[in-house]
Specification:
Helix content is 67%, strand content 0%. It has helices at 3-18, 24-31, 35-41, 45-67, 74-85, 89-96, 109-127, 137-156, 165-177. Helix 1 (3-18) packs across helix 2 (24-31), helix 4 (45-67) packs parallel to helix 7 and helix 6 crosses helix 8 (137-156).
Length: 189
């Protein structure tokens, strides 16, 4: 990726995370280029979103590598993962709302590979007895994505301090996935 293209993508990501309905004209202004230059790089909004998706996938893959999800206690690995994803959370929050990326035949298979790596972390935590076993790894993965997106939006809107991002997400998620000391009883109807 060229430096200019990378700068355009990061400018677009920054704008679209704050204003998901921004026009291509607004994206060009945010990147400091003309609409024609933007159009030469990205034929339209769909091409731009697909390029942002590729950037998001690359950043998720890099975060997973840096987090070392197979090392140490699963809860610690989850903390590392959220901390590594944090700088990219605004872009991921935008992508999370782009239904076109997750429907139909054009869905990028790299997301499934990322999902599987995160689900493997939850399975590892379940196997070690750290995490509850009544919630599926697929559900826990989706819950993590939802918390990351919500956290990114809350920070962007100034409702949450950036320094609290990782702590709040991890503690809320772990509070829900940790296996309780004693099995909870379900109320019967």
């Amino acid at each position: 990726m060229t430096v200019e293209r990378d700068q355009v993508l990061r400018s677009a990501a920054a704008l679209l995370t704050r204003k998901s309905t921004a026009t291509m004209d607004e994206v060009a202004r945010a990147a400091g280029i003309s609409r024609a230059t933007l159009h030469r790089q990205f034929a339209g909004r769909d091409a731009l979103v697909r390029a942002l998706e590729a950037l998001g996938i690359a950043e998720c893959e890099a975060a997973l590598e840096a987090a070392r999800p197979d090392e140490g206690p699963a809860a610690d690995a989850l903390r590392r993962l959220v901390a590594e994803v944090e700088p990219h959370a605004p872009l991921l929050a935008f992508l999370y709302t782009e239904n076109q990326l997750f429907e139909g035949e054009e869905q990028n298979g790299d997301w499934a590979a990322i999902d599987e790596r995160i689900a493997a972390l939850f399975r590892r935590g379940q196997a070690s007895g750290e995490f509850r076993i009544d919630l599926t790894p697929a559900w826990l993965t989706e819950a993590l994505y939802g918390l990351l997106a919500s956290g990114a939006w809350a920070v962007a809107e100034g409702r949450v301090a950036p320094k609290d991002f990782t702590h709040m997400i991890v503690e809320l998620l772990l509070g829900g996935v940790r296996r309780p000391d004693a099995p909870a009883r379900r109320k019967e109807a």
